[in-house]
Amino acid sequence: MISRKRSIEFVDGKLTGKVAGEIVNADVKARTLPETCARLGIDPQRSIAMGDGSNDLKMMAEAGLSVAFRAKPVVRETAGLALNFVGLDGLLRLF
């Protein structure tokens, strides 16, 4: 799970007009997967990464299983598994 979110910045209870936080791009996603696995004490090769766009490919490459969920063609072609006609619960049925 990626927990880095962008939010509207407040200082002393007032809007600053700025956005706080990190933009979650492909590099951030790829970095977050092994960081999260380390916090959980698991090998990234035992993780599953699910994505739908090209900005998910780097993250998906870090995981043991990559799943394309109703994804763009490039992601479906790269992923180990593609779910095109089910909901997110379709992944649970694999287990």
Reconstruct the topology from this structure:
Layout: E1 7-11, E2 14-20, H1 26-40, E3 48-51, H2 57-62, E4 65-69, H3 73-78, E5 81-83
Parallel strand pairs: 3-4, 4-5
Antiparallel strand pairs: 1-2
Task: Write structural notes for this entry.
The chain contains three helices and five strands; from the N terminus they run ββαβαβαβ. It is an alpha/beta fold. It has a single domain (7-86), classed as HAD superfamily/HAD-like (Rossmann fold), CATH 3.40.50. The longest helix is centred in the middle third of the chain and has 15 residues, at 26-40. The model has no long low-confidence stretch (mean pLDDT 91).
Spans where pLDDT lies below 50 across 5 or more residues: none
Question: What is the C-level CATH assignment?
Answer: Alpha Beta
Task: State the CATH topology.
Answer: Rossmann fold
Give the neighbour order of strands across the main sheet: 3-4-5
Oligomeric state of shown chains: single chain
Characterize the largest beta sheet: strand count, sense, and whether it forms a barrel.
3 strands, parallel
CATH superfamily: HAD superfamily/HAD-like
What's the count of strands?
Answer: 5
Classification by helices and strands? alpha/beta
Query: What fraction of residues sit in β-strands?
Result: 25-35%
Task: Specify the overall morphology.
Answer: globular
Q: What is the string of SSEs from the N terminus onward?
A: EEHEHEHE
C-alpha Rg (nearest Å): 16 Å
Binned, the helix content reads 25-40%
State mean pLDDT (0 to 100 scale). Answer: 91
How many domains, in number, for the residues? Answer: 1
Q: So how many helices?
A: 3
**Secondary-structure arrangement, i.e. CATH architecture:** 3-Layer(aba) Sandwich
